[in-house]
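Morning - flavin-adenine dinucleotide inputs below, output right after.
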Amino acid sequence: MQIKNAHLALVEQQKTNEYDLLILGGGINGSMLYRVASDSSKKVILIEKKDFSSGTSQASGMMVWGGILYLKNLEFNLVRKFCKARDNLIKHSNGVYKRRFNYTFLKNGERSSLVMKIGLALYRLLGSFRRSATKSITNKQLPSEWDKSRFNGGLSYEEGFLKESDSQFTINLLHTKNTSGSKAHNYSVVQEIKWLDELKCFKVHFSDHQNQNHTIYVKTIVNACGVWAEGVNEKFGFKTKASHHFSKGVYLLLKNTDKQQDAFVVDMEKNGDTLCWVPWGETVMWGPTETSIGSVDELPVTQDDVEFLLGKLNSKLEHKISHQDIINVRTGIRPLVKFNGQEFKNSLELSRKAILESDPKLPWHTIFGGKISGGLEFSNKAYRSIFGKKPNQIQHNSTPAAPVTRDFFNGTALPDVAWTVKNTQVRCLEDYLRRRTNIAQWIPVGGLGFKNEYLPDLKKISELIHESSTDAKIDFERYIDLQKKERYKWEN
Ligand SMILES: Cc1cc2nc3c(=O)[nH]c(=O)nc-3n(C[C@H](O)[C@H](O)[C@H](O)COP(=O)(O)OP(=O)(O)OC[C@H]3O[C@@H](n4cnc5c(N)ncnc54)[C@H](O)[C@@H]3O)c2cc1C
């Protein structure tokens, strides 16, 4: 009798706190799947250890591309799928726009213009001619700072690009109204996961951003923790055939002096790799590097990363630039899928596709790899594999727009601080400056300014975020200290 009552109490508790799906990790992969599943009437809970999009998904090149580079590895099917995914987003999402990229030819460069013309024609064919035709450009159309004597014009083609940022695109996927009762929590930690055979679900204990403990019951779990996925599997006792190879990428952010709109691709003169010069608001992103690393702890930008990028850029500029010209840096680790025993010389040989590996015994799935490009198609496929049916089409553009404030940074239009706190779970200065806006990337030293001129703005924003003045002061001081320390690591 006692056992029966205990079982009934468990069933009752389970009903109220029951979810169809728990997603661990709020990067692009977790957030996209959250959106697909909740728009298909599944009750989803997403738990993110830090802030949403604070992992690799805040450090990308923001291209929604058809994967032209993968033509080199003859991955035609992957390119065809990426092109379709890119064009769907350009058509349906107001977070993505079409943008011209210019592949430039270095004098004495590795690639001939004929090979590139054929490559771009094939690329357009694989994209079923949905993008406009390739055009030639002359040296006059290159950025004004570049040393034209090193170039021989280029070829211009069309790709997709994120309108605001990778973080804002990701966070917008989470903050729409849903009728399925789905919830996303940032700064929350899963402490324990246990499979209950009698109820055919997992019992999960987690603590939220206020350290409040919760118990939930979930039918299925997806580990979408990016480069941290293996660590999470290990913690909860799951083994997989796939794993991640870690590839660090760094960009320098420089001043966008001639307000260029187009992006430029430059040959690296080695391995057939390229670097990109991509105007982004007040800045130009120059990079990324591609360095294999052994652990996720090797993330911080080093002096070597900065010297490498500065060297490559200075060899193509008329007037050399130095560390003082760098506004900020951005860095992340690419989660690249590799299988047991797979041999490769260079991380560029690894495919950039995403896979879902499912545990043979329990409803536990892990996402390996993936990109922003193709992320929606991958989530649709993952949903089909998990729930055995097609998902509904997601509702694009349904995130409510934030009211605008012009109170800070010389009248820059920004989302209202109190609104972002209430509606997008901003918990500290960094959440607002780095991921709800681009201030921490577009204004020197993470938004402080080279002469600390924006300190009063940061102080006021911190006071708007926190209810207690003590918390506001602690957060403000911690943020400033962190920005200065991070810069010191690569500047000196
Ligand atoms: C330099 C660079 C340039 C790139 N450029 C492009 C590009 O132009 N276009 C493109 O499509 N892709 C690009 N990418 C790739 C793309 O950014 C990544 O593939 C993508 O962001 C990975 O997303 P994710 O959700 O898998 O991982 P993440 O964004 O890292 O998300 C994983 C999340 O899991 C959280 N987490 C970790 N542990 C736990 C835990 N125990 N519990 C809960 N949560 C946890 C983390 O905090 C993190 O937020 C680029 C990548 C880099 C590094």
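Note: The first strand starts at residue 18 and ends at 24.

O.
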